[in-house]
TrEMBL record, chain A:
InterPro entries named in the record: ABC_transporter_permease (IPR051393), MetI-like (IPR000515), MetI-like_sf (IPR035906)
Protein name: Sugar ABC transporter permease
Xref: PROSITE patterns: ABC_TM1 (PS50928)
Domain of life: Bacteria
Region (Disordered): 1-28
Sequence intervals crossing the membrane: 38-61, 104-125, 137-157, 188-212, 239-263, 297-317
UniProt-annotated location(s): Cell membrane
Family to which this protein belongs: Belongs to the binding-protein-dependent transport system permease family.
Taxon lineage: Bacteria, Bacillati, Actinomycetota, Actinomycetes, Kitasatosporales
Membrane protein topology class: Multi-pass membrane protein
GO biological process: transmembrane transport
Record keywords: Cell membrane, Membrane, Transmembrane, Transmembrane helix, Transport
């Protein structure tokens, strides 16, 4: 019996890398390649400069000013006042630091949880079954729905009354011993609720990438492992995991970058009512509401600058820790 | 030099790349400059010829409201040949943000706006005074409350088709079954204690113990949080803003204790996730505005009673003010805009609109002939409340309908206050939450030189 279907003609182009210096490295050729490299990266670099570099520099400039959306007053230079407020003014730093903490909690929980779950699902769906396509689409389905829609539906699931779907389900299972619980309004479960709905919505995407990774593992490896009488666990440990290590690292990186962007679900659930705003506030949510509900562009810029730096540092650390083998 | 033409004429790839990079660098800067440069200009629109096409922006609210407006535009366009109106509906949730983010020269000739946001748009030079463009008859016919909402420094910037009011809808059947006596009008409103006792009595007869709807399903960290629950602050003798300062009036001990009482009602509140708690008879009371009347009267019929909000010491209070119409500051055809506003604010259109949304008409003649709001009508309570306007500043025990602060700083006032309401309802300490909101509002006002309109 085979647990894993071998992928036909596993062409692991990903492993081969670009054709750097394959033919004779003549100097003129080298500079030519360098030029081509520059040419090929130009669109991406231009996009990066236009959509990340310039806005970021602009945000840095704005964060040193007192700027209001549509105010007739000229923007005034504020120095580091916006940053001072973010870190030392108890009224502003309280919510901001809480938002940072919420973001970190979210990332720390979601990255391993979602990656692990996606791996589990991918292994589950990587077998020869009738209608496997149907199962795969079912698990992938939530990714197709926009987060705003998902959040609206989960609001009904998590509603605090006994009409809430989760509460009534628990009530039925516990034979009527479960009272109505305020999942979104309780400080302890607000973030947990956001995490659960985010994982549910996003896991299918990671699953599909891991599934592709799994299908690139040559079936002969499993056959060889079976001949060596490796158990299922040993096969997973010594064949599957090394085979998808690169994919796994990519998925973990992607998930952590995405998990810092949590915004939609918090925004929709707060507008829908009953959400504990403090317990679920994320930095993105705070930046957007500061800029567009209170028209305070300077403050919002300072928030985004601080957040950008934190995310860059975290990503660099993460890359250093989980560097894929095949990276030069 | 135009980088696009020069790069196509050049054969040098290197130069082409430089030009492209340059373009990529310059384009966002140009966009930024365009956004930043929109603040200037003068607030008096050009009268224009009074003929031609004008653009109109409105919020897309309930379906019936949008239809009433579309019908009005249709009949205006067919009633004469001089002015043509092009109507654009923008979803309500993004409407105010859209106007905020649009520079004055991109705004239409006629635009709708939510009452309390008006001062901000005047401050941003996005609205022109309408006194010279609408007819004297239209101005005279507006109710005092509507005119008060639209007035800054003696000039009118907005007039509404309808006003608004808050109240408590009750189910007579359920109230009677629980033996609860309820007020007959504004003058014998429940005190907060009586209301509390009524909730307890209702709870004893209710299967799930949830007897009141506070429109929790809409969320409180938004304009509903401010509009719906600022009356508690006013009724406790406080104010969102007094002489441009929130500290001391928003977080006074009486307001703190009133908000504590408000929070204690969460135990009796149906979360109303489906929006049908009252109409389906799950609760006996619903704390909401006039706009639910069409749905509620259809569901409950003769069983529906309309009550004032509870009195926290300084008399019952209600919010006032709603969507209004004004002229864009950069309009080149303000005379034609005025012609359209005259048409929009006549009895036919105000009547049709208020029929569609159940709101109290904001013109004297339409109010007098309104089936719902005239003396003896089912919603007389709302017109009684609006007949005792406080304005925004002088809140006394005898007046009832309070206008939300008319200041360009209103976006911050409402954001901070509604955030406080949301967190208090969620369990935060009322004193700390209100004091924090007051400090945040005051800091913002001092950052902006008190939002003095230049």
């Amino acid at each position: 019996m085979k647990t894993v279907e071998p992928a036909p003609a596993a062409a692991s182009g990903r492993q081969q890398g670009p054709l750097v210096g394959a033919p004779a490295p003549r100097p003129s050729r080298r500079s030519r390649e360098w030029l081509h490299g520059l040419l090929m990266s130009a669109p991406a670099v231009a996009g990066l400069i236009a959509f990340v570099g310039i806005p970021f520099c602009y945000a840095v400039v704005l964060s040193f000013h007192n700027v209001r959306l549509g105010s007739p007053l000229e923007p005034t230079f504020f120095g580091v006042e916006q940053y001072r407020r973010l870190f030392t003014d108890p009224d502003l730093s309280g919510p901001f630091l809480r938002a940072l903490l919420n973001n970190l909690t979210f990332a720390v929980v979601v990255v391993p949880l979602q990656t692990g779950l996606a791996l589990g699902l991918a292994i589950l769906l990587n077998r020869k079954l009738k209608a496997i396509g149907l199962f795969r689409s079912l698990f992938f389905m939530p990714v197709v729905f926009p987060m705003a829609l998902v959040a609206v539906i989960w609001r009904l699931i998590l509603a605090r009354s006994d009409q809430g779907m989760l509460n009534s389900a628990l009530d039925a299972v516990s034979l009527g011993n479960w009272g109505a619980f305020d999942w979104l309004g309780d400080g302890l479960t607000a973030m947990a609720s956001i995490i659960v709905l985010s994982v549910w919505q996003g896991v299918g995407f990671q699953m599909v990438i891991l599934l592709a990774g799994l299908q690139q593992i040559p079936g002969e490896l499993y056959e060889a492992a079976e001949l060596d009488r490796a158990s299922r666990w040993q096969q997973f440990r010594h064949v599957t995991l090394p085979g998808i290590r690169g994919t796994l690292v990519f998925v973990a990186l992607l998930t952590s970058v995405l998990s810092f962007r949590v915004f939609d679900q918090v925004y929709v659930l707060v507008k829908g009512g009953g959400l504990d705003e403090d317990a679920a506030r994320t930095v993105m949510y705070q930046a957007v509401t500061t800029a567009f509900d209170q028209n305070n562009i300077g403050q919002a810029s300072a928030i985004t600058v601080v957040f950008f730096l934190i995310v860059v540092v975290l990503t660099l650390i993460q890359r250093r820790v989980v560097r894929p083998d095949n990276e030069d | 030099m135009n980088p696009i033409t020069s790069s196509t004429s050049s054969t040098s790839g290197r130069f082409r790349r430089t030009a492209r990079t340059g373009l990529a660098l310059v384009l966002p800067l140009a966009a930024v400059a365009a956004c930043g440069g929109g603040g200037g200009g003068d607030t008096s629109a050009e009268a224009g010829s009074g003929e031609g096409t004008i653009s109109v922006w409105a919020h897309q609210g309930q379906k019936s409201e949008a239809e009433a407006l579309q019908n009005a535009v249709k009949s205006f366009n067919s009633s004469q040949g001089k002015v043509k109106v092009e109507l654009k509906l923008i979803p309500e949730t993004d409407y105010t943000k859209t106007i905020t983010a649009t520079s004055p020269d991109k705004l239409p000739d006629v635009l709708e706006f939510d009452g309390p946001t008006m001062a901000n748009f005047v401050y941003n030079k996005k609205l022109a005074p309408i006194d010279d463009y609408v007819s004297a008859k239209t101005l005279d016919n507006a109710t005092d409350a509507s005119k008060a909402q639209g007035e800054i420094d003696g000039k009118h910037y907005g007039l509404g088709m309808f006003d608004s009011g808050l109240g408590m809808y009750g189910s007579k059947k359920l109230l009677d079954a629980a033996g609860v006596t309820y007020p007959k009008g504004v003058d014998d409103a429940w005190t907060a204690d009586q209301f509390d006792a009524a909730l307890k009595a209702l709870k004893a007869k209710d299967s799930d113990g949830k007897v009141v709807d506070l429109q929790e399903g809409s969320g409180y960290a938004n304009e509903w949080g401010t509009y719906g629950f600022a009356p508690i602050v006013w009724s406790a003798g406080g104010s969102l803003l007094k002489d441009g300062k929130a500290e001391g009036s928003l977080d006074s001990p009486a307001v703190v204790s009133a908000m504590k009482t408000f929070r204690s009602w969460k135990a009796y509140t149906d979360p109303n996730t489906d929006g049908n708690a009252f109409a389906k008879g799950r609760v006996a009371l619903s704390w909401v505005g006039h706009w639910m009347y069409p749905a509620y009267s259809e569901a409950l019929g003769d069983d529906l009673v309309v009550l004032p909000l509870p009195d926290f010491g300084d008399g019952p209070k209600t919010g006032q003010g709603s969507w209004a119409w004004g002229v864009g500051a950069d309009s080149k055809n303000a005379k034609a805009a005025g012609t359209f506003l005259d048409f929009l604010l006549d009895d036919t259109n105000v009547g049709a609109m208020t029929k569609a949304n159940g709101a109290p008409p904001a013109t004297k003649s339409a109010l007098a002939s309104s089936e719902l709001y005239k003396a003896g009508g089912p919603l007389q309570l709302f017109s009684d409340q609006l007949a005792k306007p406080c304005g925004a500043e002088d809140i006394s025990t005898s007046c009832v309908a309070v206008t939300r602060p008319v200041t360009a700083g209103y976006p911050v006032v409402t954001a901070k206050f509604s955030e406080a309401v949301n967190s208090i309802y969620g369990g935060a300490d009322p004193k700390a939450a209100l004091a924090e909101a007051a400090r945040a509002i005051d800091r913002d006002f001092s950052d902006n030189a008190g939002y003095e309109i230049p």
